[in-house]
Amino acid sequence: MVTTTHRTSITSTTKNTATARDILNDTVVMNATSTKNGDESKISPAVETDIASTNNIYNAISDEDGVLDGMNVTITNTSPRENNHTEGAQRTDIAGDTNTTMMDELLSGTNVKDDASFTNGTHKDHNDVQIFQNSQKWLDGPRFGNIHESRMTSDFVKKLIFDAPTPSLLAFNDSEHLLNLSICPSDSNFVNSQPSNEPTRYIASMAMRLMYLAIHEHQHKPARAEAIARGLMMQKSDVNINQTIPSVQNQNVAGPFDFECDPETKYIVASIPSRRGFGSNFRGFGIEPIMLGIMMDRVALYMNSLEFGPTSLRWDFFYSNCPRKDMQCMFMPLSPCVLTHEDILSAVDLPDDDLKRFRTTGYLDDKYKNAKVLVVQTNNLLVHPKGFENSIVEKITSLLNRGLDSTGASDGMKLVHNSTSDHFLLEEVKRYIFNPQNQWEVWQPAALYVMRPNEFLQSELDRILGKIIPQDFDPNSAIGIPIRDGDKCGKESQCMPFDMYIQLAKEMAAKRTLQRRRAQQGEDNITSIAEGGVMYETILVSSDSKSLTDQRSKYVTNASFPFRIIANDEDIGQGHGRPAFFYSNANAVMISTMVALKMHLLPETLVFNSCSNFHQLIVAFYKGCGRAEVGYYESLLQNDNKAFRMWCDW
Prior knowledge:
single chain
């Protein structure tokens, strides 16, 4: 049974009691006194825990210089709150004077009020600092928890939930942790933005970063109050995040990344089917729900293989053979917010016609607006949701203002007025996002966000790529050629033998060498690469056909063939894109797929087959965070040599 926690109010006095700094240091909790009906007594364990939660609020707003030192605090125990709030998370409010900030109250000695207007966890006064308390319904569960990973320490979870960008667009160091969670190369402009002499690409990269971070903020923000209550703002890397809340600690224990989130949070839930190849299914079902969530102001979640609830959420997930059978087998949870079984049983399906109407007009009927959980089946590759650009720009502005607010700036110093350079960059980012020619580019950050590798997949990517990529690898002298073969051939697309792909690489190396030398020297009349030879020495290849990539062994680097060919020897080469037949090899197939995707983000030049959904996905990632910032990509259908322009059935 859950211990009923008492509601506490905090009053600054001049009595000889514990100082705020003492409380922050956890040195005097057991010496605090509670006052009830005028009598002082030792505080009860339940109230002690509430004090611990309150301590976290003090810790969250204190600074390193100890501005709260010497402030005296008395903990006053009022009557216990009745445990009857079943319609959402309970919060204990610390309400402040509407004309002062919380810090002003604490430093000035203003009494912190007990908010009698609190009902069912829905109080929203912006001047209130609220201590989150989980609802009994959520604690009782059962819940659909997030995957448990060893890296989900308190410090890691804290960074996920609280990290914000620095107030200047020219310095994003505080966001590097979040950007590095993506599959993007660590030295890409997406992760490490650097000034560029190619302003168009620089702005495109900046837009990708900001949209990605805005999506992250949207997905994690509802857990922030609860994380504060759990103690995640404490400056102790080894703190157990469940230790400060007995209801979480003692009953139906929540995982380290399982949060009820703000009671007013609404959700959009989708699933990833497995009836086609991963590229096709992910592009059709895995990207747009994130965008719809931004537009509807709903947290997006993906669920598969449920035993009850809407039919689409019962679809099997064949891309991994891990026990949970969903996207988290390979990718990070989309949000710390987790739903209960009851939430799913009460979920509302959004019919296709109403979804199409929202996609094209932005209209959503009230019966869907008011539903806590809305279930969608998107299967959309062709129609761009109208109004997404406005919604994501609003999220970006809100995110950047939060980054500025974290420095203590006043309302009159929001980012858009912070500096001339920031104002210019933000306006350029907006112009990029609203440009109709970039309509499909704004889908890329959502794809990047969804496909953040989980701990298991990331370790496999690091291991395999660390083994196959030589230490002297130079991305600026590399060409990537993903090859779609297997069951695609003769049905949906024409295919080529391996020797033709090598010829393609040789011709592309010559073509790109000429283009780059002309650009470097500013001379269009350069027609020969004889002087200095080709600028490429490495060919990266991948394929779903292992027999194809194994043929690289007959090519030996020499004077007539100045290339080395790199491929993943552990690639299982399943030969088809039918997940239902992956069986026990499902993990190996998915790992091989993601190794191929990340490997092809590395080269300066990428040649792809536009007849493959997986190759289209590679290109989307390449443009979002790969070498496209300084490189070149080309479809086979655009190649100068007609022999390489393979037909496809699209």
